[in-house]
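Q: Structure tokens for this one, please.
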Amino acid sequence: MAEARNVRTGVFLPPHHGNDEDVTLCMQRDFELVQWLEHLGFSEVWMGEHHSGGMQIYGSPELFIAAAAERTTRIKIGAGVISVPYHHPYMIADRIVQLDHQTRGRAMFGFGPGMLVSDAAMLGIAPEQQRARLVEGVDVVIRLIDGETINHDADWFTLRDASLQLSPFSRPRPHMVVATSKTPTGSLLAGKYGLGILTHGAGDVKSSWAVAEEAGREHGNALDRDNLRVVVSFHLAESRAEAARAVEFGLEPWLRYLEALNPKSYAETRAKGGSDPAKLVAARGGLVGTPDDAVAFLEELWERTGSFGCLLMTGTNWMNFEATKRSYELMARYVMPRFNGANRQRERSFDWVFDNREAFSGANQAAINKAVAAGGRT
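A: Here is the predicted structure, written as tokens:
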């Protein structure tokens, strides 16, 4: 039987919508998807912030959270992530507290430096400034949410006797995480402030967590792996061939987008995967396959990274909407119960009945024979 675990399942939506689609309908479909995920029992969904490139269409994950929360009742909805250098930290903190109240604690908030250099370029922010501003901004945001009055002079924002007029709904503060990728900046922030981590399964998850834990010890924070989220690109169907065919819907347009964002990464992906959908996705740490393949993949991931609290499936829209919903359903119905060992007692009960089938069947037949012989008078 599978090891007993309690890994939650969520979805990380960049999202990626083809430029040939109506953007209004894309947004409505994303809201519908959140409702479907809640129906399936997913614990959370995250929405990204982007401002250029055309495919990632949300400039304000906070606005998405507000609308999605009104359409749902249970699922948690996160900003994944707020690009801190693009905003005045006071305004970030103010919006966080407002959404914390509006959603009664269902909103979550991720922080990052901003993924697209093109976004930063439009705002006149140099790439080498982004991580320093992330560190400075997160410090101010958390201190404001914790109730401090702050005076602060920076080259990109100013605060004068600044404090929030509302305390948060969630105590001591709303759930907050930091994205980690190619530098230790996010892990160091997570450790310093006791935040969660959002990282990609294709990266060095174990190292990122170790850096965060060490920083946590330095600042008196004991981090919990339950707040470690690992993002993986899963595309599931009943057969590998069917999954590969389904991914052809949106994979090539996304690869063209990747080429625009990062020609080097695109070339490396093409070199590894060629034109084979499954190999292309595998080259970036994901899976195109069946539920059985997904269980084996997750077991290997768990062994490689150590334990984590939440698996986030990347919402890339590489499959059409119906195939996408089916992929999430397969994950919820067949993959996570096996990976978590959720049916151990059912399996044990079945094994017990099966192992004693002759005795139970014989006893039942003997009881029937006795009742027949007695003419029903027992």
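A few notes: The longest strand covers residues 76-83. The two ends are 43 Å apart (CA to CA).
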